[in-house]
Amino acid sequence: ALEGDDAGLAEVLQDYHASEIAILFERLPSEAHERIINILPTEIASEVISEMDEESHPEELLINLDPEKRSEIVSELDYDDATDLIAQLEEHEQQDLLESMDEEDASSIRALLSYGENTAGGLMNSSLIKVNIRQDKKGALDDIIRQSEEMEEFYTIYVVEDDDTLQGVVSIKNIIKAHADAKISSLLKADPVYVNADVDQEEVARLISQYNLTTIPVVDDHMKLLGRITVDDIIDVMEEESTEDILKFSGVSEDEELSGSWQDAVKSRLPWLVLNLATGFLAAGVVRHFASVQVAIPTIVAYMTIVSGMGGNAATQALAVTVRRISLSDLTDSQAYRTVLKEFSVGLINGAVNGLIVGAFAFVYDGSPMMGVVLFLAMTGNLFIAGLTGATIPLVLKRVGIDPAVASSIIITTFTDCAGFFLPLWFASKFLL
Amino acid sequence: ALEGDDAGLAEVLQDYHASEIAILFERLPSEAHERIINILPTEIASEVISEMDEESHPEELLINLDPEKRSEIVSELDYDDATDLIAQLEEHEQQDLLESMDEEDASSIRALLSYGENTAGGLMNSSLIKVNIRQDKKGALDDIIRQSEEMEEFYTIYVVEDDDTLQGVVSIKNIIKAHADAKISSLLKADPVYVNADVDQEEVARLISQYNLTTIPVVDDHMKLLGRITVDDIIDVMEEESTEDILKFSGVSEDEELSGSWQDAVKSRLPWLVLNLATGFLAAGVVRHFASVQVAIPTIVAYMTIVSGMGGNAATQALAVTVRRISLSDLTDSQAYRTVLKEFSVGLINGAVNGLIVGAFAFVYDGSPMMGVVLFLAMTGNLFIAGLTGATIPLVLKRVGIDPAVASSIIITTFTDCAGFFLPLWFASKFLL
């Protein structure tokens, strides 16, 4: 349909939801983005732009539009979405755009821009529905309907004092059911869950998930209601955090864009690889130290690679379970202790089983019972170290306030590589030389 | 407070939200769970049980309660939560419990039990608010208020035909604002996003996230409205799926419980380690093949461990980015092609940089320029293979319909281990012997 004229294209597009058009954009060149945005009705166009993946750079599309169309689209956007887009622009582009907007919108967006991108303030939307605690049923309903004109959907109605401090929430159901002369003060549910504007978005996600909320109010230090965060924005945060977790865990900088350029990928991964190279020299030093053993018993080298490789994998297993467990909930001292004890046992048993296999193989294939014993001891020892470090290191990092996910495989496998080389070579030097 | 009497404990507990008590449970022995549940008012007790972590086994707590208390709690539970709990029980316990309940509740739960645990049917709640498409404003409002009596919160009002087929949704705002004689048919929004009951929960999460929904209706093959899934259940699904992804990626069975016993952990991880042992023998075979090289040039062994270790880490990086990208959206052929091309370039460049470092080290430390060349070539080659396999293998698995996450580090590092041993040894045999 992209080959046809604009009218034909417009007709095809109207069957699609804005989020579907945004997904379609990922597969189209950027010239097509601009053309489609210009064809779409402003309301849909602004929704498409707010739904576009960050990695498709909606802010560049926006800045390239005709200024009038751009203003129309920005004023249709929710404040939180507009703020996210504008925050991606260069300083002078931000000023130009804000000056072209109407004063009220611009000042709301300026206020939102002042919060950190990953805080509750950076996530919140300042448009919401609130009623004064002294309102009666009729006045409250009128207020709610008036305020809801500009909103797609409302989930929660906030109750405030004259100075806008948050008092509670009230459900539309209870207002409708109430007697005609009921006061909001008698209908409200006090003590709502709320967050301060400077709270980290991960904590916001945790609260929303724990209390099964659809929205959470955001307040300043004096409990003044600033905005609200809706669960759909939190779902995006959760996806982002999961991506960051899996990347950090694998030794990739958390801010690498999944569909970024090769230059970005090199920039994000090379430092970790160079760090790994440094730890690699350390482990290689262990091997060099036993050069006489490897010349005297050449087969030990092949087995040594098996022992160290198995240690790396067992450590990654223990690490994944422990890191994920920590990220879902804080562990008490006794839970932490039991976790270490468990990984200790798992490492010993898995080590002994695999040690028996590789030991038996050496006995049969190389005809050396003593080599079998050496490998059994080395494998058991290394998988024991794997379990211990895989569980202990993230727990210790968490206690001292460092993100446990930096204990990526790269760090942990340093231990299992060093031990994986040392143990077979050292046992061999004792028992086989 | 656990030491005090029941009255004192009850007083302390009433300051806590049910989800907070559920979290507290993780730190208490199971005798304390039973005591607290018996003290709490039934409404709170049932909320606590529905909020308890799966791994704390709320179903065991439930089955151990006094039968009368148990019936009260189960009838307070939402149908979807009750079904999840009952599904965890033994067949005969399920029957006993269902027979002790009132007939309507039991038959609703029996219907829900028939859906797969990880499908839309297994997630949905059958209690929802619906109005007939031929209702007028007054009748609809009465219906809504009547139906909402039993519900904590309602998000969306569904519009159905006489035979319960889904026609659309209507917002409470539009009903309130409408003229007194308005018909629902003129207020409804047709073509809502919906899911069929047998759709996988991951797909449900994707739809809710894509369309920013707070609830999604679930229908049967004839569009009959069966229930709805709320976004708070989807948040739990997303956490579960993230856990599974990170576990599979690290060579742990996806169903290992994070806080499970050491026996379960051994059962879940040992098969992967034995698989890794088998691939380890393969790589060790490569080393054995070049035994003469390692005896002639002992230092090559230490360097070989560096080359293979770096390959493993680079492959894990490429794999993490690719697997996560696939799990967030389907890639077109051209996107897949560009991904492989990108990892190909990243591998070459990171390989060359690290190859230069290790080559220069060998030149300076071992005084052998030719060893430097061998290591530069081997490192570049292995990181190139790492990028290529890390990107290609998950993409190919996805195309042939296999979960790309089974391309865990264990599988991919087989390639980088074999190549990481072969390349330095083979180049050394050509240039240094």
Verbal overview:
2 copies of one chain form a homodimer. With 433 residues, chain A is of the alpha/beta class. Chain A has 3 domains: 109 residues, Alpha Horseshoe (MgtE N-terminal fold), CATH 1.25.60.10; 101 residues, CBS-domain, CATH 3.10.580.10; 170 residues, SLC41 divalent cation transporters, integral membrane domain (Tetracycline Repressor, domain 2, Orthogonal Bundle). Chain A has 21 helices and 7 strands. In chain A, the strands form 2 sheets. Chain A has a 4-stranded mixed sheet with strand order 1-2-3-4. In chain A, strands 5-6-7 form a 3-stranded mixed sheet. The first copy, chain A, is elongated and about 90 Å long. The interface between A and B is large, with 107 and 108 residues.
Topology:
The structure is a homodimer of 433-residue chains.
Chain A: H1 6-13, H2 18-25, H3 30-39, H4 42-51, H5 58-64, H6 67-76, H7 79-87, H8 91-99, H9 103-113, H10 120-123, E1 130-132, H11 137-148, E2 157-160, E3 166-170, H12 172-177, H13 184-187, E4 189-190, E5 195-196, H14 201-210, E6 215-219, E7 225-230, H15 231-249, H16 262-289, H17 291-296, H18 299-328, H19 333-365, H20 369-399, H21 409-431
Parallel strand pairs in A: 1-2, 5-6
Antiparallel strand pairs in A: 2-3, 3-4, 6-7
Helix pairs in contact in A: 2-4, 3-4, 4-6, 7-9, 14-15, 16-21, 18-19, 18-20, 18-21, 19-20, 20-21
